[in-house]
Specification:
Layout (H helix, E strand, L loop, with lengths): L20 H9 L2 H9 L3 E2 L2 E2 H32 L8 H36 L2 H7 L8 H14 L1 H22 L15 E3 L14 E13 L4 E5 L14 E2 L6 E5 L1
Antiparallel strand pairs: 1-2, 3-4, 4-5, 4-6, 4-7
Helix pairs in contact: 1-3, 3-4, 4-7, 5-6
Length: 261
């Protein structure tokens, strides 16, 4: 069996965009008076909330980075789910899909919380943004553009870039946790030794009854997200493998004993 390790190109790709992108779009979209009201209240106003948009921005970055990998996995499991050759593994396949979807949702929530808390905490500790933006009111046309310029300058500063790097680190760590990467479990995972249910002793004069097999199989679902291949190892199901493939072993919760009598 190919080694159970996370394929290198299944790592979280670089984030596309910035946490403040949603906020910047909203600053240009709302009325200047709404921006003014938000600035005077240090970022929190019903029609324009910094914490809300920064949380959504962080969540969007995580989703944009990971959704292609998630979709490839879903497509692979859906193909297997529709294949009659894997009918006995259907519950296992569906469970794997549910577990990864749940882990993905949890990851997005954590990214959103970090966007809301880390960046808003930094805003509270540095009132210069509010002071600079407040001074732009009354200078004529272009107030929103001037406020947006101060925001871009503040979010582009090195301390906020460091916060974005921390966000990427959180996303990467949570992704690894979701996948339960453990290269040590590679070659050892597979099929448990079948057990036999012994039939009652035959009555006198009757022919011997052979043992009744109760094959208990641990079907291990593996995948290589990069090229959408899934491998199930079982006596009843063919195994797909590649000499160059690097397989990811899913967590124990994704393995299920399938009894065939």
């Amino acid at each position: 069996m190919a080694p159970n390790a996370l394929a290198q190109n299944s790592a979280v790709p670089p984030l596309s965009g910035h946490v403040q992108d949603s906020l910047m779009s909203q600053i240009h979209a709302v009325y200047a008076s709404t921006v003014r009201a938000t600035i005077r209240r240090e970022g929190e106003w019903p029609n324009l909330s910094y914490s809300h948009h920064l949380g959504c921005g962080a969540r969007r970055l995580a989703a944009r980075a990971l959704e292609p990998l998630i979709e490839r996995f879903r497509a692979a499991t859906e193909l297997m789910d529709a294949n009659p050759d894997y009918a006995e593994a259907r519950d296992l396949i569906q469970q794997a899909r549910r577990v990864l979807d749940s882990a993905f949702d949890d990851l997005l929530r954590k990214a959103q919380i970090m966007g809301q808390t880390a960046f808003t905490d930094a805003l509270k500790l540095d009132p210069s943004l509010w002071l600079n933006c407040d001074n732009e009111w009354g200078k004529g046309h272009g107030y929103r553009d001037r406020v947006a310029g101060w925001n871009q300058q503040w979010f582009g500063a090195e301390p906020r870039q460091h916060l974005e790097q921390e966000l990427f680190g959180v996303i990467s760590r949570e992704w690894d946790v979701a996948l339960k990467v453990d290269s040590k479990d590679g070659a050892e995972e597979g099929i448990r030794t079948p057990t036999l249910l012994r039939a009652p002793a035959p009555q006198a004069g009757a022919s011997a009854v052979p043992p009744l097999p109760r094959t208990r199989v641990v079907a291990v679902l593996k995948l290589q997200i990069s090229d959408c291949r899934v491998q199930i190892t079982s006596p009843a199901w063919p195994a797909w493998s590649s000499a160059s493939a690097s397989w990811l072993a899913l967590p124990p919760a994704w393995s299920r004993e399938v009894s065939a009598r």
